[in-house]
Amino acid sequence: xxxxxxxxxxxxxxxxxxxxxxxxxxxxxxxxxxxxxxxxxxxxxxxxxxxxxxxxxxxxxxxxxxxxxxxxxxxxxxxxxxxxxxxxxxxxxxxxxxxxxxxxxxxxxxxxxxxxxxxxxxxxxxxxxxxxxxxxxxxxxxxxxxxxxxxxxxxxxxxxxxxxxxxxxxxxxxxxxxxxxxxxxxxxxxxxxxxxxxxxxxxxxxxxxxxxxxxxxxxxxxxxxxxxxxxxxxxxxxxxxxxxxxxxxxxxxxxxxxxxxxxxxxxxxxxxxxxxxxxxxxxxxxxxxxxxxxxxxxxxxxxxxxxxxxxxxxxxxxxxxxxxxxxxxxxxxxxx
Length: 336
Ligand code: X2X
Description:
CATH architecture: 3-Layer(aba) Sandwich
Number of strands: 12
Structural class: alpha/beta
Radius of gyration: 22 Å
Number of helices: 15
Oligomer: single chain
Bound molecules: (2S)-2-hydroxy-2-methyl-3-oxobutanoic acid
């Protein structure tokens, strides 16, 4: 296929005078931006983002063309964050916890067992807590779109044994994303966490570099992690969301009316994606267990108590500082 396309292009080129080849076609976009993310094309994030960029192209009269690159195609999350900062990539969805390597407070929503339900999550993240985090992101030269996209409540999977109690995590070799909060939390459980970018997770599980990992059902499904894992423990140990980030210069370069369209359409797409994930949380339980993943429920109080006993909450309260911590507690109730 590549051969035919190239030959066709060469033939067309040969027939045109050089000046015509170099001139930009009349319909070319004024702004061609790259949007990177780490999920598979079947994940709602990709589906909703792809629909949004079509709409943005139409509403801006073709001036703004955003190309969506799924599956960490442009690099791992860690790499892509650097590319976003340099402007090589203009837009990127990233978990707040991974973003915390640059903006420490962005990890705050990942505090174990903080959010009892989605109503509490969105009230916080679309409200004061989200505003606080977005303010810190702006200070680091990135633009965070107003409405976060959902990654989901995270569950633990394993190839070797079901995780039923906090004790089962002792010494357990588990992959965590690249983020101090993730490492800290699983260290507090007594597990043996290894930081690995999502792009490498499937192969790390397949080759038994680690025995388990933790992710929301939508990621376990779209990333086909069920092929290399046997047990799924419903722990809901953390809620995780994706900030849609823009390179600040690239965002500022857009004419105000076009920028408003990009923001409105992307925020609306994020909200649709939230609803998709919530629905998937129900339907995927059946699909994944029918497919052979062995589900087990756990007692969240026991896991939370283990974190508390290990000093996890007091340690992170100190790290985040009183203002951020009290904003979190204002949304979710007292944690420590
Ligand atoms: O890396 C992960 O596990 C993922 C896909 O959930 C995130 O982006 C944090």
